[in-house]
Amino acid sequence: MKTFSTLKSMSLAALLATSVAFPVMAATPADTFVIARNTADAITLDPAECFEFTGSRIVANLYERLFMFEPDNLTKLVGGIAESYEFAEDGKSITVKLRPGLTFHSGNPVTANDVAYSLSRAVKLDKTPAFIIKQIGWTADNVDSAVTAVDDGTVKIDILADLSPALVLNLLSSSVASIVDMKEVQKHEVDGDMGYAWLKDHSAGSGPYKLKTWKANELVMLDAFSDYRHGEPAMKRVVIRHVAEPSAQRLLLEKGDVDAAMELTSDQLKGLDGNADVAAQQYPKGYLMYLATNMDHPVLSKPEVREALNYIVDYKGMTDTILDGQYKIHQSFWPSGMWAASLDTPYSYNLDKAKALMADAGVEPGTKITIDTLNKSPFKEVAQNVQAALKEVGIDSEIILSDGKTLWPKYRARKHELIVARWGPDYSDPHSNADAFAHNPDNRFEAKLTGKLTWRNAWDASGLTELTNQAAAESDPEKREAIYAELQQKVREDSPFTIMFQAIGTFGQRANVDGFINGVTSDQAYYRTVTKN
Amino acid sequence: MTDSSTAQSTAVDFSPYLTIAKKIGGGLMMLVLTFIGLTAITFVIGRIMPNDPVVAIVGDRASKEVYEAMYLQLGLDKPIWQQYLIFLGNILQGDFGNSVMTTRPVIEDIKRFFPATLELATIATIVGIIIGIPAGVLAAVRQGKLIDHIVRIVGLLGHSIPIFWLGMVALLIFYAKLDWVAGPGRIDFFYDGIVDPVTGVILIDSALAGEWDVFHNAVSHIILPASMLAIYSLAYISRMTRSFMLDQLNQEYVLTARVKGLNEGAVIWHHAFRNVLVQLITIIGLTYASLLEGSVLTETVFAWPGIGQYITNSLFNADMNAVIGGTLVVGISFVFINMMSDMLYRIVDPRAK
Description:
- The structure holds two protein chains of two kinds.
- By secondary structure, chain A is α+β, with helices and mostly antiparallel strands.
- Helices cover about 30% and strands about 25% of the residues of chain A.
- Chain B starts with a helix and ends in a 5-residue tail after the last helix.
- Chain B is built from 15 helices and no strands.
């Protein structure tokens, strides 16, 4: 018997040892903003290289650019390091006066030399996002003479390509054009790398926050910058915790261990409804979901068939069901929430009209096509919906699901027939998407303009290439806006694209948090406006 | 008497030492061969993966010049056997290259992420031993009784319930509802950086530094994920203990011992259990090694910054240096634990010598 009592007491002790209650601290400190997010995509915080969602959001809070959007108006460039600017009469250069008295986190003053160094550094390092400012005509060889310091507080910027001033300003407002602290960066230069190795996980900016720690897959910690030009932010510290699992994010949010959870599914957001301590927040995201036809296809390239596709998409049905809370109806190539976006949505689900158009085109019943899309929700559900509607109008389709690594190369090789795909802008100017959806200077296969959706779908863009160039070069903002309106309408009416939906960003937030602003692009995430009650 | 004993003491018998030396030599030889095999396999897998290591570093919009410069810098123009030799040479010097994702040397990352997994796996294995072995013995001794059924059912559940799901449920109950333990993560962020890493194991480091707040917080965080893994280990250990024990209890020597009038406790612990222990060493070694392999799902649910999550994220980012380094370290520790349990086995069981 003694044996068993020993065994029992051992087991009991072990059980107790693992289930002792530990009182836990809930609620984050009053001056700290804690975010739960999947940060697995973050690979660098160097603004000259960063092109990932998580990284861009952080970089936007560490650095300032010459021109920036302020959180109270995300469609108008007003802020930034520039106090004023003036274009030369020929539109080929800008003279920018810097705001006086600005300092970097290090205490060094922000000078014209820093601006020249930063832009030149981004062009010379030539990392992924460098193409954005290289559109200004800059190369590693000419950028030093194109961007020069006139005096400490004045920069002269030469525009070496035929671009609208507004477009140039927008390009200079992108993350890659962030201004870094030249002295600080040069201090950490190794073998002439312009601080590349060091700046990946350090910061040298003049933004509202400075980087305290970045532990990949664990957390990012930012400290408020007391000399920031709008004053020290209310949140003295921002912590972004790496939590990959959305259910875990939700638990942390509900318990008050984090103030915001960025990747909650729509089901989870609905589940928060009854909880007064937390609230679901939405913001427009720049991602568009569209249907595209390969113009090399004998049937899909017919104008009537392409028009019919606009009527077989059950826009409302899908946003009410499978896309509920994740996407909204949007039918233009420039997303809403951005300057010059067209909000017209003339198309709706109308199978009779689609049938008539198919008949006009002489499409034989039982015609077979394939639909390529991503092997994940909601792409496959949308493709199934399209497949069902196509069946109704006499086309038998087969859906091919692939992951991105297989799908995108196939798309870039023009080997698809019909595709359900997505696209997001690279910077805050309609030219970013016009260039993809309406511009194709060379439709030959050998041209390999794989960055353009027009080329990928073998569409010569029927006269829109010139109009896109014209819009990019137009200096009058009103005229420019009018050209984009025309471009969006023309692409809607006659192109291989049926633009269907725009993504909606959603996140959960504690009820005592106020002022956390998220815009259409990743770099419109503002921590400095956050307050807690 | 005197003569013979003198003669014996002068002619020292080295043979037992030689045997041990041979065993150790053999073990080391095995380790070297396994190391070469492992590096070769991980290297080849790394190279035939559909991910382009150059694109992972320079991005897919980089110019042709930048791409080619990185291609040359990574030595990808050399024949594959030459690349392997360079790779092997670097590893022997402790250089796995840099991680694209964390930008730091992979070896530094491993030093940070591996202890987190080690901490979790060690606690889970210890709990598995403390609960699993007595439970298994009890079940065997009381075969067919209620306690036996309970142990068997718990064993079956522990082996078949998805840890991912169980982890979420446990978080919901013990963290969200009851408030007994801390939630996902290894430590609350406001304790982060207070204790300097010495061993990398927060529980040890904070205790060494006398930072009991930090220690307490770390314990509170580790309880749930360690318990999840412990359920898996104790399920396996108790099941195997029960089966080994039943085997022994049916042996003749147990009957003899009982007939000789030894009390039941002595029969079970001194006779039967000693034989079971030998077999259990291998089982425990296997369990520990499999937990170290990186419990990706547990680490994901509990936002635990361990080696499993590190390797998985590296795969998604096509960060091949990190994948190869991480896989290799896990592989080596697997071999090492097996070797250790093999040696322990020989020490405990004289017959194995």
